[in-house]
């Protein structure tokens, strides 16, 4: 990457921002556009990046308008008609997708790449923390802000291992060349890109073919993926209580989860989860499998798992009090929702669980409306917001109503974001969970403030 300047179109995305931070650490001039100002973009600006929020060429500093010195990086979420992207393309700048750049960075390292419809952010974050807290160390490009480090980027000057989240959207993970690959799930998603469930599954199989010779594939035991890896690649399965890597002696109670990790050649006893929710048992099994392959010791595993604080927006406790609990979770796929809801109910079996869900994308809502309805029906009380469109234009006949009509919970409401706080002000609550991958996170500070005022003594 022999460019002086790196310009990002969509710099505020979680995956783009860690690349921006990486290039800032290398002394590059970094700038970019994003649609709206967020805590991520403000932090980048504080760290030395130029960031602006208007698709306007006049806003770009002249230092970036030099195709010999500037690499342009864009996210597939940006439409092809975006003015800045069109300009850089017409002027024949070198333009790369975010995944291409990450692929180039990881080619020269021992890459641990974590893929999956859901679970990949937690597993990659756990893996990075396990390595960082050990004598091994690592670099990491994460899809969430890891609470232990308040960052989505970890850099090391002593380790050649790089942990990266492998995004299947737009087949981005096909640019990676893993040493160790983890597949957490392959439930159909992004059918607007792939067209069919079969094509989606085949994309994961293609990903397995990219593992380096003599590498390792760790795949969830029930994932519908037939590995296409080189014959020299070791293929291992994992699960909660079955698979080549699994958990035994699981103990849940008093807000804690303890278990033993078991593989073909070792048992690590007495592992305590820092984020004690049941779904994290299987996440931890996958992460520990990769970390021990890298040389992390048993005692280092115990310490790291106990101190793991989680990633923001992944089963993220904002209030944990006697009279009110408030949790936020990124779940935006029916299987993720079901897993998260079951985890909440296991923690609070005798309390009413109210969920606020913001659907993400018109196409995903259309393709999985019935599945969303079944998942959300697990809740005692559902508040359903309007669809967050992200990169999409509206689709005729598709709205939150088609999910709402399929929800069978005794209590359910359609609500706009603007009406939500007033609704919560007067609604009896015991456990409140917000779900979604859109902009629902921008409401979290106001929701937390309201709940603290409403319930006091917390």
What would you say this structure looks like, in words?
The protein is of the alpha/beta class and 458 residues long. It folds into 3 domains: 94 residues, 3-Layer(aba) Sandwich (Rossmann fold), CATH 3.40.50; 199 residues, UDP-N-acetylmuramoyl-L-alanine:D-glutamate ligase (3-Layer(aba) Sandwich), CATH 3.40.1190; 140 residues, Protein-Tyrosine Phosphatase, Chain A, CATH 3.90.190. Helix content is 32%, strand content 24%. The chain is built from 14 helices and 21 strands. Helix 5 packs across helix 8, helix 5 packs across helix 9 and helix 10 packs parallel to helix 11. It starts with a strand and ends with a helix.
SSE blueprint:
Blueprint: E1 5-9, H1 14-25, E2 29-33, H2 39-46, E3 50-52, E4 70-74, H3 83-90, E5 94-97, H4 98-107, E6 110-115, H5 120-132, E7 139-146, E8 151-154, E9 161-166, E10 180-183, H6 191-194, H7 197-208, E11 216-220, E12 234-238, E13 246-253, E14 256-262, E15 267-272, H8 279-293, H9 298-307, E16 316-320, E17 325-329, H10 334-347, E18 353-357, H11 362-376, E19 381-384, H12 401-404, E20 411-414, H13 417-426, E21 431-435, H14 444-455
Parallel strand pairs: 1-2, 1-4, 2-3, 4-5, 6-9, 6-10, 7-9, 10-11, 11-12, 17-21, 18-19, 18-21, 19-20
Antiparallel strand pairs: 7-8, 13-14, 14-15, 16-17
Q: What proportion of the residues is helical, as a percent range?
A: 25-40%
Number of extended strands: 21
Can you tell me the residue ranges where pLDDT is under 50 for at least 5 consecutive residues?
A: none
Largest sheet: 7 strands, mixed
What's the arrangement of strands in the largest beta sheet?
Answer: 8-7-9-6-10-11-12
């Amino acid at each position: 990457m022999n460019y002086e300047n790196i310009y990002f179109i969509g710099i505020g995305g979680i995956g783009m921002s860690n690349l921006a931070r990486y290039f800032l650490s290398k002394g590059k001039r970094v700038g970019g556009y994003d649609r709206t100002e967020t805590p991520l973009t403000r932090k980048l600006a504080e760290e030395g990046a130029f960031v602006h929020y208007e698709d306007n060429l006049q806003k770009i500093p002249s230092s970036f308008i030099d195709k010999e010195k500037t690499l342009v990086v864009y996210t597939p979420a940006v439409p092809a008609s975006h003015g800045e992207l069109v300009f850089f393309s017409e002027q024949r700048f070198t333009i790369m997708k975010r995944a291409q750049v990450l692929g180039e960075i990881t080619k020269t390292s021992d890459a641990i790449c974590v893929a999956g419809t859901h679970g990949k952010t937690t597993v990659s974050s756990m893996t990075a923390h396990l390595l960082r807290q050990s004598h091994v160390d690592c670099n990491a490009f994460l899809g969430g802000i890891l609470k232990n480090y308040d960052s989505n980027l970890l850099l090391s000057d002593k380790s050649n291992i790089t942990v990266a989240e492998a995004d299947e959207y737009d087949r981005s993970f096909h640019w990676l060349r893993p040493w160790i690959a983890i597949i957490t799930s392959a439930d159909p998603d992004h059918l607007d890109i792939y067209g069919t469930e079969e094509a989606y599954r085949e994309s994961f199989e293609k990903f397995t073919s990219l593992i380096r010779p003599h590498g390792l594939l760790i795949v969830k035991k029930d994932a519908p993926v037939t590995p296409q890896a080189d014959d020299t690649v070791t293929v291992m399965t994992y699960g909660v209580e079955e698979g080549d890597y699994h958990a035994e002696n699981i103990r849940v109670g008093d807000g804690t989860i303890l278990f033993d990790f078991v593989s073909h050649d070792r048992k690590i006893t007495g592992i305590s989860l820092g984020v004690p929710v049941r779904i994290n048992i299987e996440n931890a099994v996958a992460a520990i499998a990769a970390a021990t392959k890298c040389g992390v010791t048993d005692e280092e595993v115990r310490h790291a798992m106990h101190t793991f604080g989680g990633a923001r927006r992944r089963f993220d406790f904002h209030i944990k009090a006697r009279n009110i609990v408030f949790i936020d979770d990124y779940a935006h796929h029916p299987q993720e929702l079901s897993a998260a809801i079951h985890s909440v109910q296991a923690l609070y079996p005798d309390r009413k669980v109210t969920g606020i869900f913001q659907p993400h994308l018109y196409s995903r809502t259309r393709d999985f409306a019935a599945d969303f309805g079944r998942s959300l029906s697990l809740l005692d009380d559902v508040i359903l917001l309007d669809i967050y469109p992200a990169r999409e234009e509206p689709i005729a006949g598709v709205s939150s109503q088609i999910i709402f009509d399929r929800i069978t919970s005794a209590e359910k409401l359609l609500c706009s974001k603007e009406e939500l706080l007033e609704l919560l002000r007067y609604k009896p609550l015991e456990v409140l969970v917000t779900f979604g991958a859109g902009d629902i996170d921008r409401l979290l500070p106001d929701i937390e403030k309201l709940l603290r005022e409403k319930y006091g003594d917390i």
